[in-house]
Task: inverse folding
């Protein structure tokens, strides 16, 4: 019945990394204001650098393989979708 502002958040987890990665790494977010009854599609373009990590020799390497991806209003909400990069 009232306008609301929500923050859509995109998290990833590199399940194939050679070193332990955060379970949910925030890689993008967008604040969205909605009128009562309104819906909106939010799109996230994730840069390759956001999927990279430091290897055991502290070199930045590109993440490849399987990633779990969540889009939710918080790190505790939502279900992951597994994608291949």
Result:
């Amino acid at each position: 019945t009232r306008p609301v502002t929500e923050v859509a958040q995109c998290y990833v987890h590199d399940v194939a990394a050679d070193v332990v990665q955060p379970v949910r790494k925030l890689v993008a977010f967008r604040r969205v204001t909605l009128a009562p009854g309104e819906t909106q599609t939010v799109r996230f373009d994730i840069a390759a650098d956001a999927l990279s990590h430091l290897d055991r020799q502290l070199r930045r390497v590109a993440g490849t393989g399987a990633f779990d991806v969540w889009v939710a209003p918080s790190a505790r909400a939502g279900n992951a979708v597994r994608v291949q990069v």
Notes: The CA atoms of residues 11 and 26 lie 4 Å apart.
